[in-house]
Write a structure and sequence with these properties.
The structure is a homotetramer. By secondary structure, chain A is an alpha+beta fold. Chain A is built from nine helices and eleven strands. In chain A, a hairpin with a 2-residue loop joins strand 5 and strand 6. In chain A, helix 2 runs antiparallel to helix 5. The longest helix of chain A has 30 residues. Chains A, B, C, D: It holds the Pfam family FGE-sulfatase. Chains A, B, C, D: Pathway: Amino-acid biosynthesis; ergothioneine biosynthesis.
Chain lengths: ~450, ~450, ~450, ~450
């Protein structure tokens, strides 16, 4: 059973019909993301970080089957007795499973069977909601929280799907496009004015509240809300752009150990990094592999697909530093960014977008959407954090070491999935997500 | 250009129409093998030894494009400029290529594009043969030899396809069947009489000729024919069966280092081998994963999917040894096995078959087909062996170290692809091919 | 050149004669630690974390040669032109060097040459100090700071030496003693009363100052002093003992994933951890390898040689948590532990000692010395931290990721080397240092 | 018990006094080889192939303790109960042991203890021989064979010692000399006439006897003697020289895959081989690390420290091939090389020597001593080979796969340890032994 800590009471308890509507919308979004894929695209795992889309489709379904149907639907028959072994991600509480590294070795079950699995579970979920709703009773808070967790979980996998699909397609020298390039095409490389230099926005130090406090949903890792002290600091009003980052590259940033953390420098040498992931140079010009195939570099767009090591080295070179997650959250409370202003998954842009040239230099832009912003904060439990009992206690808590917090969501995040208190986390070497840089000092 | 050493003159120079007929038959067989597969099955590479079926389909096509069309068809336009990078297997002469270990990371080009590639090349090959045949001229020997090499090459990949498909499907706990099980089903495990003990067939020592001498096609590694001396020896009249091998297992064969070569013992411990590949025990009975799904062990059938290490350990335990390739070939010349008596790819049995209970104990059975027989002979060049010049010099010669020779073909070998002089070769640890054991002393 | 940030002005500028005295005392301590070793003991590197004692002897000497003599002694001739390559640890600024993993492959230079190197540098350092002192001038602050860094650096290596020597001797089944066991021997395993349960000491939350603020020496990572807010918390009044830890073990702590962080659980399974490093069970009783050979477990002594993962799992099992480094420092300021009360290197006990049975339960004991206490704080830069320019900028700053802070010093720390603000740091999996556990909640 | 197959009756059964004399001479030679070493040199293991000299000293002693004293000396007390665990090399029959890869992690027992172990065993062996000799009885054949095996075993380790010491000292940038360079020093690089081109010596094909047939000692792998057929072939009358090999290097031999076996080419690329082991280029001239430190390349000397892959690539480039072991042995019987003409361990040259300029071109030179000659023959059992029962059955038989036979002994082989039938064996990638090249065609 889930503690209230993990799933605080939702603001307005939804009606069952609303729940059903939301469920179908979220589930449709997942299927919609996979629609441009061929069956062949849905089974490969080029690196361990990337899971096959077929696996995402099934795993998110298994989540509803395991945490909702098994516990709330009397006499529920699982779709297939082996699917728990195949599609459990990392829950030791729920038994043995396919090793993460082996997800790409499995051609079966085929994609069609996975879609049948989705349909089977969807039908039973809808039936369950309808049955519960028919009694006229309110949605119980515990059920509502658990159900919302399933939806948020699926949204997390939508974001992973967007990043994984990009990586999968990028391995081919054919540089296939997931979707046709949008019109009008981005400006040619080097052409057009890059953005003017960023401005610094000062924020006064003092004691602040951090963490999620509202009603509504949050993950357990945003809890408990607590007080922190921070000193005066400044944030840049916009993200670091490709033009900015090119300057770092051209100044020899990838060849000078002085900017780098020790482990980052070793990795960069060994992996022969000379640019962000997906960049390639052709006839003197830089291109990037995108969901729309190979595209010229847009200088004004935020740089993305950089590791923490690169973000930190860039900041050193620029005479600045990365913010802490507390600083970022304080700034977000101060500047109250509108979700509508950011680029999210629903845009199907799949790429962070340049700031409008005339943007107000006194505002802090691009806080939500576009790219996840690396912070120099370890992903550790907040004071008072408690792991839930049971399998869901493994959802977040056991990962709270050796990873960094990222904030703000990206162009691959569903718009309804982001909050200023949201804590994403990756190891410092990861580059396949839409990660980017905002400077502090 | 190919030396005559690599491709000796064919017995009867075929007419172009016959060439065309044979080409289409071979190419159809490849496509037929892949027909039961789903697109998902054709892209995964669960271990480095196993190539995705899509890759086999394309690589064999690339072979004809590269070695026939590019050199013999004026103004030939390749189907796609990137395919040489994607589908070259190991020819350094032909430039850089996808690493062998990365073949399973590529979802693109999709299977349909690969079929289109096959159709494109097939059409142009047929056109070329028709054009050449239209002049009424005979097929030039060099062209015939090269063309035959393309066909034999494709047949080798048919055998690999059969083994790779089995491995790919075996990785799933669903134990999917490639084809429905044949009727009547094999006898239940443990039931029915196993074969009576094998008999020993003595062969007198002396000087013998070894290697291919006829007209017709052979690979360069079967050349040059040469003389050897062997001492008196005996071969068993049949293959080692599952019943025989079970005795070894039950006698602790996998737990007693004394039977094993040092490197084999270390590997067996580290990989925790306790039975041949694909065996699994359930409720006290042994089953095997086959092309027809999980099947009870047929005690009378030849054991297969054993490494050289296991074959050698079995022989030690049995107080015997493995034959040399020379002994095997001498026996094959002496007993003149009929291809018709063996189980080959065309049977679609995909499993070695038991010897008929009343088989003549004075005959040497199962020499051709059913399983490749491990010999205790290193795959080294024969005296007088010469690598061909150019890319085809890389076909066989560069692999002549650290591998063992296997003889006789298997149930996955096309029947027209085997000869008593045929030298197959694998590293001692490989188990995914249809490999088996015949004892000598 | 060193910034003042890295090396703040020392409290009382020492006279040159005092500097000389301190230099000789520190250098003698290093040699004294190596005296019981055989030449054979000084060259091996059983794991990458452990450096050969010969290397420590030379590297600390190279530090003085490089940072003092080369810059301050006119016409200084290095002892040997290859020693910089051999004995530079990790300073990219100072050129290429032997890989860390290869330190144990080098038998040459022999130990005697390294002692000659020490004598050569010692003589020149003393000469330099005497020459500078002869002018009657005061020791310039920058020189004093740099010189003190050399001494503190050597003390850090004394601690590493103590831990590395233990590991080196432990690899032998002969279980050799570095020093004879002290008399009286520790109480036999299981005998004698273990300590009574620890008490909880509450500390009020609020804003506190953190970081080094005095005159005198500190490392750059203790800078800059800054304000933090912490909530109310409690610390245990003593360290977790072997008796405490045995309860965790006997309750199945190493077999229950629920207590563990994900990466820790995987490591513990793969490495087959079932107890702290150096523990072994014999005839039902637990023993520990120590500097005095194999010794029965003293139940009342603090547990040591545990990884962060084990410390954290223990805390979970005990219904508590590890403190943050801020909490630890606040407690240390509050309870003002006396260095004299702790067990340090000078005791030559090389093992944490039990708390006296009648110790005041209202005091916080064992804060300094005995074992380094894991905190759940990432080793990140403090606000306002600046890397020094030049090679010394590599001393600490580049390691500030993926490690945890440990506080308080251990039985292997020189007593003059510890401060309440001292930040030690190791990766979460390390166990060969004298690391231990204090609980918070 | 040892079968007669493994240890055939010795020609003249030696008297016990002669046995004692020979024992002392062999044992002294081992100690003499280690005399120039420092204790530090005797414990390191820079690569897995290289064992610490201390280990060789102890392991050879353990061999006599285990196979002679334990079985033939009543009430024998082992020197130390842990030494069997520490110094057993690879005999599964004799229980668990230190992993081969971990021999360099053990500083204890110290070198002096190992010398005490040698003295202890020597005294008891001498006592045993004296006691047995005092009865006036002849040495029983089985005992004589077993004792001789102990001596030959120790001689094998003398050769390994010579190669391992070289490797150990080579890892230091100090390039220490094991012994002072002999006078006169070798001719400077490039100076002096290299040898004239080798001549080809034809040998008629036919049936020949192979394997050891005399009385006296041989290893079991030289048994049983048997008949082979070989075709006409030619051998070169001398070894390939450094001058010859330089031509290959300068012709781009390390950059052209066409000369190489596939696995060799991959290894050479990955390991970045550009010359034999121990070669280094300085100011345009080539030098070699030797037992006498860094020395200019002597063009006339035989090339050494090449892998099989390099030897085979060289042969391809030169339009020739490597001999088989049968060809080599037939040539050796034909040309009856004198041991006295070769360079062996007793010379303390530790380097193959140039052929005298006026050497007879019709003779086959340098067959014995100087360098082990790679053959293109797999190290497989001879027909009729039988592993001995018991632990000694593990001496040779279990290694008979994936290695190549080398013939003729080297400058590190004791002169009394070589025979024309002697089969040495290494994996194809090994370079740290004194391996070289003779061409055949």
């Amino acid at each position: 059973m889930l503690t209230s800590q993990l799933l605080p009471p939702l603001e307005a308890i939804p009606k069952f019909t609303a729940l059903r509507q939301r469920y179908q919308a979220v589930r449709d979004q997942t299927a919609d993301l996979c629609r441009p894929l061929l069956p062949e695209d849905t089974v490969v795992q080029p690196i361990i970080d990337v899971s096959p889309p077929k696996w995402h489709l099934a795993h998110t379904t298994w989540f509803f089957e395991t945490f909702i149907l098994k516990d709330h639907q009397a006499d529920y028959q699982v779709f297939h007795p082996d699917y728990a072994f195949l599609f459990n991600s990392y829950y030791n509480s729920l038994g043995s499973r396919v090793n993460r590294a082996d997800r790409g070795t499995l051609s079966r079950p085929p994609l069609n069977d996975v879609y049948a699995y989705r349909a089977y579970v969807d039908e039973r979920i809808v039936h369950l909601l309808d049955t519960l709703g028919a009694t006229g009773s309110e949605v119980p808070a515990a059920f509502a929280g658990l159900f919302e967790l399933g939806l948020q979980h699926e949204q997390q996998h939508q974001e992973l799907l967007a990043a994984d699909i990009k990586y999968i397609l990028s391995t081919s020298p054919l540089a296939p496009a997931y979707l046709p390039a949008p019109a009008p095409a981005p400006a040619p490389a080097g052409s057009g004015p890059a953005l003017p230099p960023a401005t610094w926005l000062p924020i006064a130090g003092g004691n602040y509240r951090i963490g999620y406090e509202g009603p509504g949903f949050c993950f357990d890792n945003e809890q408990a809300p607590h007080e922190v002290y921070v000193a005066d600091f400044s944030l840049q009003n916009r993200l670091v752009t490709n033009a900015d980052y090119l300057q770092f590259m051209e100044a020899g940033g990838y060849r000078d150990f002085r900017y780098w953390l020790g482990e980052g420098w070793e990795l960069a040498q060994q992996a022969q990094w000379i640019a962000p992931l997906y960049w390639m140079q052709h006839a003197g010009a830089w291109y990037r592999f995108t969901h729309h195939g190979l595209q010229p570099l847009n200088l004004a767009a935020p740089v993305t697909h950089v590791s923490f090591y690169e973000a930190d080295a860039y900041a050193h070179w620029a005479g600045a530093r990365l913010p802490t997650e507390q600083e970022w959250e304080i700034a977000a409370r101060r500047f109250r960014p509108a979700v509508a202003a950011g680029t999210f998954l629903e845009s199907r842009a799949f790429d962070p977008q340049p700031l409008a040239p005339g943007a107000d230099p006194a505002q802090c832009h691009q806080l939500l959407g576009d790219v996840w912003e690396w912070t120099y904060s370890a992903y550790h439990p907040y004071p008072g954090y408690q792991r839930a009992a049971g399998a869901l206690g493994e959802y977040n808590g056991k990962f709270m070491l050796n990873q960094l917090v990222l904030r703000g969501g990206s162009c691959a995040t569903p718009a309804s999935h982001i909050r200023p208190t949201y804590r994403n986390f990756f190891h410092a070497d990861k580059r396949w997500q839409f990660t980017g840089i905002r400077l502090a000092r």
